[in-house]
Every structure is written in C-alpha cells, then in structure tokens.
Design goal:
Layout (H helix, E strand, L loop, with lengths): L2 E12 L38 H13 L3 E2 L5 E5 L9 E5 L5 E10 L2 E14 L3 E5 L9 E5 L6 E7 L6 H17 L12 E11 L9 E6 L2 H20 L7 E6 L4 E7 L9 E2 L10 H9 L5 H10 L5 H9 L1 H12 L4 H19 L10 H12 L5 H14 L3 H7 L8 H14 L1 H8 L6 H11 L6 H13 L2
Parallel strand pairs: 11-12
Antiparallel strand pairs: 1-9, 1-10, 2-5, 3-4, 3-14, 5-6, 6-9, 7-8, 10-11, 12-13
Helix pairs in contact: 2-3, 5-6, 6-8, 7-8, 7-9, 12-14, 12-15, 14-15
The structure holds zinc ion (ZN).
Amino acid sequence: MKYETVIGLETHAQLLTASKMFCSCSTKFGNRPNTNICPICTGQPGVLPVVNKKAIELAIKTALVLNCQIAPQSIFARKNYFYPDLPKNYQVSQYELPLAINGYLEIVVNGERRKIGITRVHLEEDAGKLVHKGAARIMGSSESLVDYNRTGTPLMEIVTEPDIRSPLEAKVFMETLQHLLQFIQVCDAKMEEGSLRCDGNISIRPLGATKLGTKTEVKNMNTFRGIQKALEAEEVRHREVIAAGEKIMQETRYFDEITETTKAMRSKEEAHDYRYFPEPDLVPLEPEADWVESIKLNIGELPEQKKSRYIAALGLSAEDAEVLLATPALAKYFEACLELKAPAKAAANWLIGDITAYLNEHEKTITEINFLPAQLAEMLEMIENGAISGKIAKIVLTEALAIGKEIKEIVKEKGLTQVSDEGELVKIIKEVIANNPGPVTQYRQGKTGIIGFLVGQVMKATQGRANPRLVNQLLGKELSKN
Ligand SMILES: [Zn+2]
C-alpha cells in the first residue's frame, strides 16, 4: 500500500516589542538573570495585566500578510500547567477565539507553488528559561536554575492546516515564513536564538484517504536542517511501525540532533488537560476596523511585489532581485541608496558583488559595517562622473569598508583621482606608442583588436587611474596619425 505523509506546523515567534505582553518590563535579551521582572510577570497575588498594544499590532500585521481574517472579537484564556518556568502556573494564551483565522501562505517547492493553509494566528506569553547545570536536559543535571527574564515576552503562535506533504515542504514553509516575518519587521526570527521556534505534527495515511492517521508531535527542531531531518526520521518510524502491523501512539517526541532520531518524551496531552478558561483579568480583544485598516495600509510592499518592481522598473535581473530580497536588511540598504539617487543596477552590482563578498569574509551583516548607503551612493556618483574608475573604486571600497572613512577623503589622501586631463593622457599615450612599435604596426595593418593591449599599457602607466573611455578615444586618434 502507498502512504502519504501529512504534516502541520505550530510556530512560535517572539514579537519585536520593547516591553512584555502584560507588563512594562523590558524584553531585552542577554540581561543578568531575573532582572527584567516585576510582580505582574512573576505572577504575584493581586496584580492586573495590561495588554501590550504594539504586540497586537504586530500580530494583526502578520495575520493580514498571511491572508487571515481578523476576528472582530478574540479572548485571552488561561492555559494551566505546572512547571518551574511558569511562575503563575498558567500561561495567558488564546484558545477558543483566536486573533485571526483562515489564512494561507504560498511556498515554492522544487519550482512548484503550494498553498499552505493557516488555521490561526494567536497571541500568548512566553515562559521563563531553565538552565540545567552539567547537562542539556533536566535528566542528568546536578541542579537547574530559573531565569524569568523571558517570562511574559509576547509570542505569536501561527498554526498551519495539515497541508504539508513532506519534510522538505515543512522546511521550505519555515524558511518562507522566517523571511516574511523578518521582512515585515514583526520578529527577528532567528531560529538559533529561539526567537522563532517550531513543533511539527506528523502522521501518515494510505494515499487517497481523507481521514488523518494518528499523529505524533515532534519538538526540539532548532534549525531548518533539523526540521527536515526530524520529520524525515519520524516519517520513516511511522512507516516502519505501520508496516510491522503495529499502531502509532499519540505522543510528544523530541528530536535528538546527534543521533538524528526522535525519542518519546511524554504521551500527548489533550486540550482538556490544560483546563482552559477565559482570563478573567483581561477584557475581550476587539480591534477597531479603522485601526486594522491603517495597519494594512502601512504594511508596504511584500517581497514578491518588490521583486516585480526591481525587475520591471529598475531593470534588475530576476536573479539579482532575489539575492537582494533574500536578506531584508540588504534590500533596505539598496532602497536607501536609490533614495539618494544612486543608479539601481550599479548599486545592486556592488552590493551583491564586492560588498557581499566582504560581509561573507568577515562574517558580518550589512547593518554591522561602517559603510553607509550615502557612501555607496557617493562612490557611484564619482564613478559616473568620471572622478574615479571602477577599478579604483574597488580599492577605495576595500579601504572604506576596513576603516569606515569618507570616500572623497580616501580618494584624495591616496591620490586616486582619475586622470581625465587630455593633455596629460596624450603625453602618456605618445610614450606608449613609441615604446611598443610592434603592436602599433600590427594595429595599423588592420589588427585593431590589439588596441586593448595598448590601453592596458596606458592604464599601467597611470596605476589604473586613467579614464578608460577617454584613453580609448585618444589612443584611437593618436594611432590613426602617422
Ligand atoms: Zn514584568
């Protein structure tokens, strides 16, 4: 019998807000443990939560981009469970009435477009962080420490329909989602830092069946590669269990990155285990239509729209447009250059070429360098008006990237201004003609391609500073004299 794989993903994204979901504590990462805390996020008796408006705005923005319907009313609920990372013994989440429902995200897998349904987008708060001494997990550690700095950080949960049909599709879905969240600036979406996390629900069923098979939930998928590997391992396990005539147990499993297998963690909890009930301290969320509309208007261009514009209006190749858009910060940098009237194609070429090479070599991002869009725009202007050649620009750029100085200053300091003075160039050209009688004769006998060699000699004599267009012109003129 042929089987198909059915996967649904639950993604948690940390929202880019300055303060927590229900209190004014900072969400800053990396502070001393238990310093970003207050009576509200540590669940002291008698406190009252207040909803973070920015978190709602960012979640609505995401839901709109994911083509969801925004619920006219949604309700916060208490999800009850006991664990040391949860000081209140419940997590405020949304259960029956989430913020948004019924959306989709389009992905492209092996050249084929796939529409993955989004069941819901809802808001909740994060738990604290447990640090287990001497081991990665609580098992085998000598003691465990609790850091509540993360407790109460706004989280957005995005749940897909069971529309994903392979571990590869799951990986592509997460990559596409990450890119989108970064693009619309709702989440920095770094899987390795945990600001974007995902769990997968997987089952298999006979091909053509409509009823879902028994699913397992896979946790601890911390990288894109991990998502694919974990789900592949679980897919194989399901097939083997069923082929052996046994039944899949509904349970939660975790992915062991070292053995690349999944291991049973606990039997899967049912929703009623959490004894959800409406949070009595928070009123229902009813975002005004005008507000939702203004959020929609401020979303701006999405990657697909930008790509079309880069190609149609700016004349970039599809490839170049994709490279720029793959990193939202690079696209932003590029657009800042355009605002400064930099020529689009040249700006794209330098960004994708020399600047990206520098970033890769130094393991930096475009936001971490001292070379600003204004400097690139200035450099491009100097190339355009003939003040420096493209070749010299490479030298200047290397210097500017290394020390972050102004382009004009570097050019001046190093005496790199392009030689566009005709008199000076003619003098050098005459010397080159006198010193290279062989090639000159060949040229005059009709082998005009040799002019490239002579141009090279002039460039060499000027240490690359001669204006190549002018050299070509003047050299042609001089060679036609006898
Ligand atoms: Zn707090």
